[in-house]
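> example.struct
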């Protein structure tokens, strides 16, 4: 099974002060895709510079030619399917059909209350996600859409000419629970996970691999219910949130060991964070670039 290596570049630097250079360098290094977070602010970066995902990806599309681009991940926390669809169709056009939409149910972070709303319960997040994804699917594949749901509506929403990628740009659905996995099985071209968050603080890498194997198996069950082959979906692991933390970027050998263990349980794409000094994503830039250029080839 071929494994692809991608990177996620956080939108924390001004474009002319390192932001542009990271995207250009990522393509030079041969990454399959360059993603960015779609948040209004995020964790320890809340009180520092942070830019919007869609303008960042628009700029990245202008300075790259081959690398795929996308979000990891967009959520309903501050997005509406109608306006998001228009932005995605525009992005897909500007990039020449290189956009992947990573999409998840959202959480309880800063985005959950930035518009002045009360944070949604886990059930409401799942309910909203269950409406959001199918409606967005329609908006990206049909010229005109009308819909009345419990949470989202569209009235003769026009999306002409649609995506460059047909029938629409791919969805990479982030999910671990049964409802989310069913959405991934039905609407996803890929599935995304960060692992089991309960293992991050006190778990072991071995426990994490077992938990991830279980997630892959539950995804397979969700696909089987729909008569779909689980191998039809790419399986993306966003690193940095398992007990391994930053260890896979400590050396080429460490990365090859990590990537090999996760390829064995079915992952087709590994995503590593572009190094940011003095943060949880700190890493030696030279080692990072060596991994980018040689890591996948070392797997054989």
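> example.seq
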């Amino acid at each position: 099974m071929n494994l692809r290596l991608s990177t996620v570049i956080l939108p924390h630097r001004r474009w002319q002060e390192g932001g542009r250079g990271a995207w250009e360098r990522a393509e030079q290094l041969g990454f399959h895709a360059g993603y960015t977070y779609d948040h209004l602010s995020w964790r320890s970066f809340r009180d520092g510079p942070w830019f919007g995902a869609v303008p960042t990806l628009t700029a990245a599309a202008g300075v790259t030619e081959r690398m795929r681009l996308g979000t990891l991940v967009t959520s309903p926390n501050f997005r509406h399917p109608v306006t998001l669809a228009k932005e995605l169709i525009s992005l897909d056009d500007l990039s020449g059909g290189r956009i992947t939409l990573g999409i998840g149910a959202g959480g309880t972070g800063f985005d959950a209350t930035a518009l002045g709303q009360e944070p949604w319960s886990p059930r409401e997040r799942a309910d909203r996600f269950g409406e959001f994804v199918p409606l967005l699917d329609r908006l990206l594949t049909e010229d005109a859409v009308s819909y009345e749901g419990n949470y989202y509506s569209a009235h003769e929403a026009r999306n002409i000419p649609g995506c460059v990628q047909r029938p629409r740009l791919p969805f990479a659905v982030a999910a671990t629970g049964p409802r989310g996995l069913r959405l991934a099985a039905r609407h996803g071209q890929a599935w995304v996970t960060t692992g089991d968050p309960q293992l991050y603080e006190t778990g072991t890498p071995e426990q994490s691999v077992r938990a991830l194997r279980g997630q892959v198996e539950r995804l397979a069950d969700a696909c089987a219910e729909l008569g779909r082959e689980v191998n039809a979906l790419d399986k993306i692991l966003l690193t940095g949130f398992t007990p391994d933390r930053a260890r896979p970027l400590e050396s080429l050998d460490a990365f090859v060991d990590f990537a090999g263990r996760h390829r064995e349980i079915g992952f087709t794409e590994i995503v590593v964070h572009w190094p940011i000094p003095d943060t949880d994503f700190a890493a030696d830039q030279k080692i990072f670039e060596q991994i980018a250029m040689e890591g996948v080839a070392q797997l054989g």
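> remarks
The chain has a mean pLDDT of 97.
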